[in-house]
Amino acid sequence: MALSRVTGPPGRLDVPVPRADRMAAYWITLAPGASGPVPAAPWRGTWEAEHARITSGEVARQGHPGEGDGFAASGEYDVSGLNMNDSAVTFTVEAPAEGEYDLAVFYSHMYGRGAEATEPQPAQQVLAVNGAERFVDYPSTMNWQHRSVVHVPVRLREGENTVELSKSGAIGTARGEVALDKIDLVERRPVRCSYDGAFARHEAPGEDPVFDVYAAEDRYHRFAGAEQGVLLGPQNQCVPVDLTRPVFLHAGVNRLRAAAERLDVEPAEGLRSWTWTPRRRSARAGRA
Q1: How far is it, in rounded angstroms, from Cα 29 to Cα 248?
Q2: In sequence order, what are the residues at sequence separation of 6 or more whose Cβ sits closer than 8 angstroms to the Cβ of residue 195?
């Protein structure tokens, strides 16, 4: 994430992309500028798995500019074969200050527990941040070269920290196998985003404009600028939402139709996010 002010002649804007990666995709949001300083974006750091300390794992080259048919990986490489009891990828990271950070783990894996699983479950790894352990669940990406990301809130101290993702730890052995691409750390602080209606899409005559609303993680958000809206799903599902109350957005871009000249969106502080519950712990009710 980067915030900047750009200017240009009528009909043209040149938007700089810091440290552009030819194998990456970028989402750019434009809005009419205002006077005053541009707020600083939250601090962010990136560490490639292939550059970390690897135990019982293998580095493999994936898609790159010279092989357009390959599946892209950050930095062109990922780390796989992390299926031994001592398999681990250990990152040494530098944090600018003590506090809360969002850890994004970019990964891939084909199965849940494995091909033999009778009831597939998300694969796991043991995450240890400065020695404090917890399990991390990874939903299947259906292919070892298809990437996804999970987000985990972590607390770091100022300066050097150790982030390790391993097959086993003091809390036990993780199920399944995961290939790692990279990790990102982003300072956790409320970021208020504004979306100008002049840049929204009008997909059909007579309908309200559609805003592309970005969420850094799966969580509830608060809106200002409209009271009602409709979230549009990937298969044209339409979900009416009350924008006077917190609305749950998934990580990434959310399509929202709303009668607004401008939408202001920010994370809803103090609200618990979602919790994944295995099917076997649930009970059917009614006509389900």
Answers
A1: 21
A2: 29, 31, 211, 212, 213, 262, 263, 264, 265
Residue-wise pLDDT tens digits, 197-230? 888 888 888 899 999 998 877 889 999 999 999 9
- C-alpha to C-alpha distance for 6 and 18, rounded to whole angstroms: 14
Residue 74 · residue 21 · CB < 8 Å: yes
- Note the pTM of the prediction, 2 decimals: 0.72
* Measured CA distances, 175 to 37, 128, 151, 220 (Å): 49, 16, 19, 30
Closest CA to 71 of 141, 20, 166: 141
Distance CA 124, CA 166 (A): 9
User: How many Cβ atoms are within 10 Å of 146's Cβ, its own excluded?
Assistant: 12
Q: What is the pLDDT of residues 187-201, one digit of tens each?
A: 987 777 888 888 888
Reading the block at residue 62, the tokens are: 């994936």
Please choose, from the candidates 70, 193, 50, 178, the residue with its C-alpha nearest in 3D space to the C-alpha of residue 125: 178
